[in-house]
Amino acid sequence: MLCASVKTPMPAPVPAPWTFLTNHTHVLLCLHRFPGDTLREVAARVGITERAVQRIVRDLEAAGVVARERQGRRNTYRIQHAAALRHPLEAHHTVGELLASLG
């Protein structure tokens, strides 16, 4: 038992090991906010590997959430704002609504 007169310093807060949004959402937000970024830059912003971003973008393309467009030597990604969210709890909302709510 510690004596009440002895003060121990409070430990620094440790960041939570999880977030409310998935990496898919983080990548989608980056494509929305920074449309000129390369996938390498998106990976750096999200804090995951470039390979993981490539896989996520493929998932988003397959789901009809983003469309890849070639511009010269670079790809750009157009977000399909009317696409419905995938989970039954959110299916009545669109990707555009999600992006608007997150700023």
Which terms summarize this structure?
38% helix, Arc Repressor Mutant, subunit A, 2 strands, alpha+beta, globular, 4 helices, 103 residues, two-stranded antiparallel sheet
What does the model show?
- It comes from Deinococcus arcticus.
- One of its GO terms (molecular function) is DNA-binding transcription factor activity.
- The protein has 103 residues and is an alpha+beta fold.
- It has one domain (23-101): Winged helix-like DNA-binding domain superfamily/Winged helix DNA-binding domain (Arc Repressor Mutant, subunit A, Orthogonal Bundle).
- The protein has 4 helices and 2 strands.
- The chain has helices at 23-33, 39-46, 50-62, 95-101; strands at 66-71, 74-79.
- The protein has a two-stranded antiparallel ribbon with strand order 1-2.
- Helix 1 (23-33) crosses helix 2 (39-46) and helix 1 packs across helix 3.
- It is globular, with a radius of gyration of 19 Å.
- The mean pLDDT is 90.
What topology does this entry show?
Elements: H1 23-33, H2 39-46, H3 50-62, E1 66-71, E2 74-79, H4 95-101
Antiparallel strand pairs: 1-2
Helix pairs in contact: 1-2, 1-3, 2-3
Domain HTH marR-type: 23-72
InterPro entries: ArsR-like_HTH, HTH_MarR-typ, WH-like_DNA-bd_sf, WH_DNA-bd_sf
Pfam families: MarR_2 (PF12802)
Gross geometry = globular
Strand order in the sheet with the most strands: 1-2
**Structural class category:** alpha+beta
CATH H-level name... which superfamily? Answer: Winged helix-like DNA-binding domain superfamily/Winged helix DNA-binding domain
Q: Count the domains.
A: 1
**Percent of residues in β-strands:** 5-15%
Q: How would you spell out the order of helices and strands?
A: HHHEEH
Question: How many helices does DSSP assign?
Answer: 4
Distance N to C terminus = 49 Å
Percent range of helical residues: 25-40%
Give the C-level CATH assignment: Mainly Alpha
